[in-house]
Design goal:
seven-stranded mixed beta sheet, 7 strands, alpha/beta
Length: about 290
């Protein structure tokens, strides 16, 4: 694996333990079964959603996606709190801090779109095929040469009117800290002339949802199902308009500051400042930093 890949200091033993109320073994098993069935239902209904979207427009597909995502979260016993409303046009790059596999249905419940995910997700049981059918854009994280092609694919999707969702930290954190937003994905917004929608994700209690390090997916699924009173909050922050930042690095810093300010409960700002900028290079995505 390449040394440039981002990583977090979080570990399953240190960060992904649940200390709150528990649901009990029977209820946890029932939740796990219900959640799995909800995901499978999404896999089976994905072709219908795509067909209806083609016939009646993206709004119909978005309604179906939101309903499915909320059903998955509800099945796993997760309460959802959405704060704010979508800003700007639908064709925008949505960027969020990354804590868990739960982030994917959580964002879909508020802002359905095409997700950018690592190629390993494609091999996950049930979730992998569903992600592929849902139009997920896959990134080969250990192949730096593949990055420019992925950025071009993202820009093409934005040009076509799609909403694209990415986690610029490049790795999951437990939610108690935040990683640096890597600039590469922001080049797609610059190339497509698209706005950026920062999003802040929070889970309470924190440890139950965290999916970090070498934590097995099965263990994380059980931990979520067995947790009591797990609440997921997604906060939609003010949009960064297209053209307000001249290059991907300043755009990444602006988005990271917006999410970090919300995490620290600081007053939000209406104008995103882009400082220490360098001249943009729309076709030169050379490094992930």
């Amino acid at each position: 694996m390449s040394v440039w890949l981002p990583s977090a200091p979080c570990t399953p033993r240190g960060c992904a333990t649940h200390h709150g109320p528990a649901a009990g073994a029977l209820r946890a098993a029932a939740r796990l079964l219900a959640g799995t069935l909800a995901v499978i239902a999404g896999l089976l209904l994905a072709p219908l959603a795509a067909l209806l979207g083609a016939l009646f427009g993206a709004r119909v597909r978005d309604v179906m996606t939101r309903s499915w995502a909320r059903a998955v979260l509800r099945a796993f016993g997760v309460r959802v709190r959405i704060v704010g409303r979508p800003h700007g046009p639908r064709a925008s790059l949505v960027v969020a801090n990354h804590i868990s596999w739960l982030d994917i249905p959580l964002i879909a419940a508020a802002l359905p779109g095409r997700m950018l995910a690592k190629t390993e997700v494609r091999r996950w049981p049930v979730l992998g095929p569903l992600a592929a059918r849902g139009g997920t854009l896959f990134l080969e994280r250990d192949r730096l040469r593949a990055l420019p092609a992925t950025v071009r694919e993202m820009a093409s999707a934005l040009d076509g009117g799609a909403r694209v969702i990415a986690f610029p930290e490049g790795s999951t954190w437990c939610g108690r800290g935040q990683g640096r937003f890597r600039p590469a994905v922001f080049q797609a917004a610059l190339d497509a002339g698209a706005a950026v929608q920062p999003v802040r994700i929070t889970y309470l209690p924190t440890g139950a949802a965290a999916f970090v390090g070498d934590d097995p997916l099965a263990a994380s699924l059980w931990r979520v199902a067995a947790a009591g009173g797990l609440t997921a909050e997604i906060r939609l922050l003010p949009v960064i308009p297209a053209g307000s930042c001249p290059d991907r690095r300043s755009l990444a810093r602006a988005a990271q500051r917006a999410v970090a300010r919300e995490s620290a409960n600081l007053p939000s700002v209406s104008v995103h400042q882009c400082v220490n900028s360098i001249p943009p290079s729309a076709s030169s995505v050379r490094t992930p930093s």
